[in-house]
Design brief:
Length: 167
């Protein structure tokens, strides 16, 4: 059996991962209020500083890559004037897709914490462990299931309301 890597280290100044996930949930709620799929992300430095907060925006921006994770990494890269980030942890309400996982590798994310699993397209644990591919020059630890019920409930409620409207 393969070794299970340790989860990402909790940055100083935060009592637990739930506190950071609640910030990501706030972003997800903003996405829902804008008609976007409610996914939110927070990027936190190793020192505990919030580097970026973002939510899904592909519909409003007409950009298929405007996932919460990508937007948070773009914002942090712009703020630091460096496309390589200094090993921050990305906290996101939904397990990232393959596109987002690839971007995390290139950005040099230090860890990933996610809420709800995505059994259809999740590329951290559910369908694929993209961060553990043996040919990658950068890998990072992953912790899933933080406030999973609340994160998943937000998505279920969003899609149930959409179906109720005939969309």
């Amino acid at each position: 059996m393969a070794d299970i890597p340790a989860p990402p280290a909790l940055p100083p100044g935060w009592p637990d991962w739930e506190a950071l996930m609640r910030l990501a949930l706030d972003e997800a709620r903003t996405a829902a209020s804008e008609g976007e799929v409610p996914v939110g992300a927070v990027l936190v430095s190793r020192e505990g500083e919030i580097l970026a907060r973002a939510h899904n925006a592909p519909i409003g921006s007409n950009d298929p890559t405007a996932h919460a994770e990508i937007l948070a990494m773009r914002q942090a890269a712009e703020n630091t004037a460096n496309y390589r980030l200094d090993a921050p942890v990305l906290v996101v309400t939904l397990e990232p897709c393959l596109m987002c996982m690839g971007a995390m590798v290139h950005a040099r994310i230090g860890g990933l914490v996610f809420g709800a699993a995505d059994p259809k397209t999740g590329a951290a644990e559910s369908c694929f462990e993209a961060h553990r591919l043996p040919f990658l020059n950068h890998t990072f630890p992953v912790l899933g299931g933080v406030l999973a019920e609340e994160c998943g409930g937000l998505l279920r409620d969003f899609f149930a309301a959409r179906r109720g409207k005939g969309a």
